[in-house]
Amino acid sequence: MTVRALLVAVAAALVVAGCFGGSDGTDARPAGETESPSLASAAPPRPGICPLTLPNERTPRGQANAGMNHGNGKLWTTMWPHNVLIASGSYIQPDGSVWMKWPWWRSVRGRLTVTGRRLDGDAPPLTADIPSGYGDRGFQPSGLTFPTEGCWRVTGTVGDARLSFVTLVLKAERYWPKAEEASP
Predict the structure, then answer these.
(1) In whole angstroms, what is the distance from residue 160 CA to residue 68 CA?
(2) Count of domains observed in the chain
(3) Does residue 106 lie in a domain region?
(4) 65 vs 167, which has greater pLDDT?
(5) What is the CATH number of the domain that holds 18?
(6) pTM for the model
(7) Residue 62 class from Cβ within 10 Å (0-12 exposed, 13-18 middle, 19+ buried)?
(8) What is the per-residue pLDDT for 13?
Protein backbone atom coordinates (compact mmCIF):
# COMPACT_ATOMS: atom_id res chain seq x y z
CA MET A 1 0.00 0.00 0.00
CA THR A 2 1.38 3.40 -0.93
CA VAL A 3 1.68 6.21 1.60
CA ARG A 4 -1.04 8.12 -0.24
CA ALA A 5 -3.42 5.15 -0.16
CA LEU A 6 -2.71 4.68 3.55
CA LEU A 7 -3.41 8.37 4.25
CA VAL A 8 -6.67 8.21 2.29
CA ALA A 9 -7.73 5.08 4.21
CA VAL A 10 -6.91 6.71 7.58
CA ALA A 11 -8.77 9.92 6.63
CA ALA A 12 -11.85 7.94 5.55
CA ALA A 13 -11.76 5.92 8.78
CA LEU A 14 -11.62 9.11 10.86
CA VAL A 15 -14.57 10.62 8.97
CA VAL A 16 -16.64 7.48 9.50
CA ALA A 17 -15.61 7.10 13.16
CA GLY A 18 -16.96 10.56 13.99
CA CYS A 19 -20.31 9.90 12.37
CA PHE A 20 -22.10 7.38 14.56
CA GLY A 21 -25.14 8.42 16.56
CA GLY A 22 -28.63 7.28 17.50
CA SER A 23 -31.32 5.25 15.84
CA ASP A 24 -35.07 5.49 15.65
CA GLY A 25 -35.79 1.81 15.05
CA THR A 26 -38.95 1.98 17.17
CA ASP A 27 -40.32 4.98 15.24
CA ALA A 28 -43.74 3.84 14.05
CA ARG A 29 -45.87 6.82 15.10
CA PRO A 30 -48.60 8.27 12.87
CA ALA A 31 -47.21 10.25 9.94
CA GLY A 32 -48.68 13.55 11.17
CA GLU A 33 -46.86 13.59 14.49
CA THR A 34 -43.84 15.77 15.12
CA GLU A 35 -40.44 14.14 14.82
CA SER A 36 -38.60 13.44 18.04
CA PRO A 37 -35.96 16.00 19.12
CA SER A 38 -33.20 13.38 18.92
CA LEU A 39 -33.86 13.00 15.20
CA ALA A 40 -34.87 16.47 14.09
CA SER A 41 -33.47 19.41 15.91
CA ALA A 42 -33.81 22.88 14.45
CA ALA A 43 -30.03 23.25 14.31
CA PRO A 44 -28.00 21.19 11.82
CA PRO A 45 -25.41 18.77 13.20
CA ARG A 46 -22.01 20.21 14.02
CA PRO A 47 -19.66 20.35 11.02
CA GLY A 48 -18.11 16.94 10.39
CA ILE A 49 -20.75 15.12 12.47
CA CYS A 50 -23.39 12.86 10.96
CA PRO A 51 -25.57 11.07 13.55
CA LEU A 52 -25.70 7.79 11.62
CA THR A 53 -28.40 5.30 12.48
CA LEU A 54 -26.94 1.99 13.56
CA PRO A 55 -28.92 -1.02 12.26
CA ASN A 56 -31.04 -2.61 15.00
CA GLU A 57 -30.97 -6.00 13.19
CA ARG A 58 -34.77 -6.30 13.21
CA THR A 59 -36.09 -8.18 10.19
CA PRO A 60 -39.49 -8.92 8.71
CA ARG A 61 -40.89 -12.32 9.66
CA GLY A 62 -39.33 -15.02 7.50
CA GLN A 63 -36.40 -12.91 6.26
CA ALA A 64 -32.76 -13.65 7.07
CA ASN A 65 -30.81 -11.15 9.16
CA ALA A 66 -27.91 -9.82 7.11
CA GLY A 67 -26.58 -7.85 10.09
CA MET A 68 -27.52 -4.56 8.46
CA ASN A 69 -31.28 -4.82 8.81
CA HIS A 70 -33.25 -2.03 10.42
CA GLY A 71 -36.95 -1.86 11.19
CA ASN A 72 -39.74 -1.23 13.64
CA GLY A 73 -42.31 -4.01 13.20
CA LYS A 74 -44.17 -2.20 10.40
CA LEU A 75 -41.39 -1.14 8.01
CA TRP A 76 -37.88 -2.46 7.45
CA THR A 77 -34.88 -1.74 5.26
CA THR A 78 -31.33 -2.96 4.82
CA MET A 79 -28.47 -0.50 5.24
CA TRP A 80 -25.07 -0.26 3.63
CA PRO A 81 -22.06 -1.44 5.66
CA HIS A 82 -21.64 0.92 8.63
CA ASN A 83 -24.60 2.82 7.09
CA VAL A 84 -22.19 4.68 4.81
CA LEU A 85 -23.07 4.61 1.12
CA ILE A 86 -19.85 4.88 -0.88
CA ALA A 87 -20.90 5.36 -4.50
CA SER A 88 -18.59 4.29 -7.30
CA GLY A 89 -18.75 5.66 -10.84
CA SER A 90 -21.72 3.68 -12.15
CA TYR A 91 -23.95 5.09 -9.39
CA ILE A 92 -23.00 8.72 -9.99
CA GLN A 93 -25.34 10.39 -12.45
CA PRO A 94 -24.23 12.91 -15.12
CA ASP A 95 -25.52 15.77 -12.92
CA GLY A 96 -23.35 14.57 -10.01
CA SER A 97 -26.20 13.09 -7.98
CA VAL A 98 -25.93 9.61 -6.48
CA TRP A 99 -28.53 6.96 -7.40
CA MET A 100 -28.84 3.73 -5.44
CA LYS A 101 -31.32 0.86 -5.14
CA TRP A 102 -32.80 0.63 -1.66
CA PRO A 103 -34.94 -2.30 -0.43
CA TRP A 104 -37.96 -1.97 1.87
CA TRP A 105 -40.39 -4.45 3.46
CA ARG A 106 -43.91 -3.55 4.60
CA SER A 107 -46.11 -5.42 7.08
CA VAL A 108 -48.82 -2.77 6.76
CA ARG A 109 -50.92 -2.33 3.64
CA GLY A 110 -50.38 0.69 1.46
CA ARG A 111 -48.13 2.45 -0.99
CA LEU A 112 -44.60 3.27 0.14
CA THR A 113 -43.37 6.84 -0.14
CA VAL A 114 -39.79 7.85 0.60
CA THR A 115 -38.58 11.34 1.42
CA GLY A 116 -35.23 12.66 2.54
CA ARG A 117 -33.33 15.78 3.37
CA ARG A 118 -29.70 16.65 3.86
CA LEU A 119 -28.81 17.42 7.47
CA ASP A 120 -25.34 18.93 7.10
CA GLY A 121 -25.84 21.40 4.27
CA ASP A 122 -28.19 22.85 1.72
CA ALA A 123 -29.45 20.54 -1.01
CA PRO A 124 -32.69 19.77 -2.79
CA PRO A 125 -34.62 16.86 -1.22
CA LEU A 126 -33.84 13.34 -2.39
CA THR A 127 -36.12 11.84 -4.99
CA ALA A 128 -37.49 8.31 -4.91
CA ASP A 129 -38.55 6.05 -7.75
CA ILE A 130 -40.90 3.40 -6.34
CA PRO A 131 -42.04 0.97 -9.02
CA SER A 132 -45.53 -0.49 -9.04
CA GLY A 133 -46.27 -4.19 -9.35
CA TYR A 134 -45.10 -5.32 -5.90
CA GLY A 135 -48.50 -5.33 -4.19
CA ASP A 136 -49.43 -3.38 -1.09
CA ARG A 137 -47.48 -5.52 1.44
CA GLY A 138 -44.12 -7.27 1.57
CA PHE A 139 -41.00 -6.44 -0.41
CA GLN A 140 -40.78 -3.11 -2.24
CA PRO A 141 -37.66 -1.96 -4.08
CA SER A 142 -36.92 1.72 -4.54
CA GLY A 143 -34.37 3.83 -6.35
CA LEU A 144 -33.17 6.78 -4.27
CA THR A 145 -31.40 9.76 -5.81
CA PHE A 146 -29.33 11.87 -3.43
CA PRO A 147 -28.64 15.24 -5.12
CA THR A 148 -25.34 15.68 -3.23
CA GLU A 149 -22.93 13.89 -0.97
CA GLY A 150 -23.52 14.42 2.74
CA CYS A 151 -25.49 13.37 5.78
CA TRP A 152 -29.09 12.44 4.84
CA ARG A 153 -32.20 11.59 6.85
CA VAL A 154 -34.36 9.17 4.84
CA THR A 155 -37.97 8.43 5.83
CA GLY A 156 -40.14 5.67 4.43
CA THR A 157 -43.88 5.97 5.06
CA VAL A 158 -46.81 3.62 4.47
CA GLY A 159 -50.09 4.98 5.82
CA ASP A 160 -49.47 5.85 9.48
CA ALA A 161 -46.26 3.78 9.72
CA ARG A 162 -42.93 5.56 9.39
CA LEU A 163 -39.30 4.47 9.52
CA SER A 164 -36.50 7.05 9.47
CA PHE A 165 -32.75 6.63 9.46
CA VAL A 166 -29.66 8.76 8.89
CA THR A 167 -27.05 7.69 6.36
CA LEU A 168 -23.86 9.21 4.99
CA VAL A 169 -23.49 9.44 1.19
CA LEU A 170 -19.96 9.70 -0.22
CA LYS A 171 -18.50 9.50 -3.72
CA ALA A 172 -15.74 6.88 -3.87
CA GLU A 173 -13.61 8.92 -6.25
CA ARG A 174 -12.98 11.49 -3.52
CA TYR A 175 -11.66 8.91 -1.03
CA TRP A 176 -10.16 6.04 -3.03
CA PRO A 177 -7.07 6.54 -5.18
CA LYS A 178 -7.54 5.86 -8.87
CA ALA A 179 -6.06 2.54 -10.04
CA GLU A 180 -3.56 4.25 -12.34
CA GLU A 181 -2.20 6.30 -9.40
CA ALA A 182 -1.68 3.29 -7.15
CA SER A 183 1.73 1.65 -7.01
CA PRO A 184 2.14 -2.12 -7.39
Answers:
(1) 24
(2) 1
(3) yes
(4) 167
(5) 2.60.40.10
(6) 0.72
(7) exposed
(8) 37
Domain that holds residue 83: 3-28+49-181
> Does residue 44 lie within any of the structural domains?
no
- 130-181 pLDDT, tens per residue? 999 999 999 999 999 999 999 999 999 999 999 999 999 999 887 766 655 5
Please, are residues 24 and 53 in contact by the beta-carbon 8 Å criterion? Answer: yes
pLDDT (0 to 100) of residue 42: 41
| Dist CA 17 CA 166 (whole Å) | 15
Compute the distance between CA of residue 16 and CA of residue 9 in angstroms, rounded to an integer: 11
pLDDT of residue 136: 92
Sheet of 84-87: strand order equals 84-87, 161-171, 150-158, 113-118
Torsion (CA) 96, 97, 99, 104 in degrees, nearest 10: 160
Distance from C-alpha of 53 to C-alpha of 24, rounded to nearest angstrom: 7
Within-domain flag for 59: yes
In three-state secondary structure terms, 81 is helix
* DSSP type of residue 20: B
The answer to whether residue 38 is domain-embedded is: no
Q: Residue 10 pLDDT > 60, yes or no? A: no
First to last CA, the chain: 8
